[in-house]
Amino acid sequence: MDTVREIGALRDAVAALRDDGAAIALVPTMGALHDGHVALVEAARRPGVCIVASIFVNPRQFGANEDLARYPRREQADLRMLTEAGCDLVWMPSVETMYPDGFATNISVGGVSETFDGVARPGHFDGVATVVTKLFNQVRPDIAYFGEKDFQQLAVIRRMAIDLDLGIDIVGVPTQRDDDGLALSSRNVYLDVHERAKATALPRALGIAARSIARGDDAEDALVEARATLNAAGFDIDYVALADAETLAANPAADRPRRLLAAARMGATRLIDNIAIQDD
Ligand code: PAF
Fold first, then answer.
1. Considering only CA atoms, which of 30, 33, 27 is closest in space to residue 78?
2. Please, what's the b/e burial string for 97-112 (b: 16 or more CB within 10 A of its CB; e: otherwise)?
3. What pLDDT, on the 0 to 100 scale, is given for residue 280?
4. Helix H or strand E segment including 147
5. Please, is 76 exposed, middle or buried when counting C-beta atoms within 10 Å of its C-beta (0-12, 13-18, 19+)?
């Protein structure tokens, strides 16, 4: 597995992979990799496909009071994981390479980015859309893989790929969870042992609410109960909401694909999770 840090070297390396007749799959990451990222690489691993992973902690998607400075960085461990997972090439640009002096462009996706984390984290999805557009233009993949754990991010990127005629297939990969149900996240390392135990209330509350809504119970009652469970566990809630799984619009009709989404803080750690409403 090769690692490249300059745009010229990236272009040469991707061209060499393409010369061998391969399609290119991109797995964008911010590093601090876990089994959720490995699942993205595994989903991408198919005959005739070369996998490029990117590792870049993108400053533009962190708010002023967020965790950019303490976001975990574990380059050597990440590279070992990507090698073992079967990745072919790693793109690791510096901040200066991505955003040289004078950088002045912003990609902003309307609609799907305007609720939930778009409200709780102003500017976050512009930062994501801008860096993902750059990664797409740099690597020029045929297909790109994103975790469903960041469900709204996935919706934003899908919308952007359609709107800008990017010609890149955007694939969502199911959330990977620990044995106790907590969704894998690079930010889970911030939780101390007590917070970690209490945090399992998040997937539990969402699971109970999702099953209740799928049975046809009143959705608002289910959300109220989920919020009460999270508050009792010590969470400070940003949102717990039911949305249309494609448009993320509120109050989705029961015959539409629906998703339950939540964001809440356990101590200083902000966790997000989501779950499909599995109608029979
Ligand atoms: O999901 C992430 O890790 C990041 O938001 C992404 C897509 C790599 C963009 O920085």
1. 33
2. bbbeeeeeeebebeeb
3. 66
4. strand 143-147
5. exposed
**What tens digit of pLDDT does each residue of 34-45 get?**
999 999 999 999
Give the other-Cβ count within 10 Å of 29's Cβ: 23
Contact (Cβ atoms closer than 8 angstroms) between residue 207 and residue 275: yes
All domains in the chain, ordered by first residue = 2-173 (3.40.50.620), 186-275 (3.30.1300.10)
- Rounded (10°) CA dihedral 147, 153, 159, 164: -100
Q: Which residues neighbour 154 within 8 Å (Cβ) at sequence distance 6 or greater? A: 146, 147, 148, 170, 172
User: What's the number of CA atoms in the CB half-sphere (13 Å) around residue 17?
Assistant: 25
Half-sphere exposure of residue 61: CA atoms within 13 angstroms, side-chain side? 20
pLDDT digits (tens, 9 = 90+) for 91-122: 999 999 999 999 999 999 999 999 999 999 99
The protein residue whose alpha carbon is closest to atom 1 in ligand 1 is 29
d(CA 156, CA 185): 19
Pocket test for ligand 1, best of 27, 37, 132 (most atoms within 8 A of CB): 132
For residue 176 and ligand 1, the question of a CB distance below 6 A is answered with: no
pTM confidence score:
0.97
**Phi, psi angles (nearest 5°) of residue 161:** -65, -35
Q: Return the percentage of the chain with pLDDT > 70, whole number.
A: 100
- Rounded to the nearest angstrom, the distance between the alpha carbon of 30 and the centre of ligand 1 is 6
Distance CA 202, CA 275 (A): 11
